[in-house]
């Protein structure tokens, strides 16, 4: 059984309350529950982590090898555009990673159009709300990413 680890970046604990016109009304807890259900359907083990702190995210990524994680799904949120440290951690662990975003970052402010994470990810999914996370899991299941 493959193991997926999901990292939610800064401000995502506020989902459902924060800018619902951009991010919708679904809470982070509801996203995790939807992912757990999909993981069962796809026969994956799944675990989650959320932090507003860059260093905690970097440390968590570094620990994934020891946890035997096969795939990483990450929504780095604002760190997408600023964190060389998260980018380098993903590159260092060499775990197939999918970058996800609830909103279509390319339809938003220009500074959001550049991802430092994309070059070390196997793919990026954005703009489909909660479904962005589900699509990432389906990509892992159907594409056999490595």
Q: What can you see in these coordinates?
A:
By secondary structure, the chain is an alpha/beta fold. 36% of the residues lie in helices and 18% in strands. It contains five helices and five strands, in the order βααβαβαββα. The chain has a five-stranded parallel beta sheet, with helices on one face. α4 links the parallel β3 (71-75) and β4. The longest helix is centred in the first third of the chain and has 15 residues, at 28-42. It is globular.
Helix content: 25-40%
C-alpha Rg, in Å?
Answer: 14 Å
What is the residue-mean pLDDT, rounded to a whole number? 92
Q: Whole-Å distance between the termini?
A: 15 Å
Oligomeric state of the chains present here: single chain
Count of distinct strands:
5
Taking pLDDT < 50 over at least 5 consecutive residues as the criterion, the unreliable ranges are: none
Structural category: alpha/beta
Strand order of the largest sheet: 2-1-3-4-5
The major beta sheet can be summarized as:
5 strands, parallel
């Amino acid at each position: 059984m493959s193991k997926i680890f999901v990292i939610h970046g800064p401000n995502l604990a506020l989902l459902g309350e924060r800018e619902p016109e951009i991010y919708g009304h679904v809470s982070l807890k509801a996203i995790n529950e939807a992912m757990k259900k999909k993981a069962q359907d796809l026969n994956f083990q799944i675990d989650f982590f959320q932090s507003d702190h860059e260093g905690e995210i970097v440390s968590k990524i570094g620990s994934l090898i020891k946890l035997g994680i096969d795939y990483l799904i990450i929504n780095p949120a604002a760190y997408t555009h600023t964190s060389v440290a998260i980018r380098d951690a993903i590159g260092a662990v060499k775990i197939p990673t999918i970058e996800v975003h609830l909103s279509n970052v390319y339809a938003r402010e220009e500074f959001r159009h550049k991802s430092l994470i994309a070059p070390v990810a196997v793919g990026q999914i954005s703009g489909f709300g909660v479904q962005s996370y589900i699509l990432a899991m389906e990509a892992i299941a159907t594409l056999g990413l490595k």
